[in-house]
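ok so I'm stuck.
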Amino acid sequence: MANTYTQIRIHIIFSTKNRNPLIPEAHREEVERYMTGIVGALNQKLLAIYCMPDHAHLLVGLNPDISVSELVQKLKANSSKFINQKEWMDYGFAWQKGFGAFSYAKSQTKQVVDYILNQKEHHKKMSFEEEYLGFLEKFDVDYDSKYVLG
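replied:
not stuck anymore, here's the structure
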């Protein structure tokens, strides 16, 4: 086969260091725009993004020329540098180590986009911890509770 053709949709979730509320609503859209630029610069397609004060959700159409781990590493490193250069806080911003990545079929795209864009309302009913553990259980991911949110 002369070319590579894929359809890979990955829902990526990661939190701020210690899950502290470090992304103020006043700067949320600016952080999202910056992260959107990172995804695009890496030749990936961002389908949805929403940053809560303590975590971020992205749905990415993944081009197989980069691994999910490399994409997340670049997202975290570059967005942390951007946020720290803005000096929005008196101390350094950092993302927590690790992330969750969950695959979806094309037919599920609208449902996942709606879920991501509705984060603010969703978290009035459920904490990040409950949400994240729910994803791990829904996708049948083995985890050690000592480390998953540590």
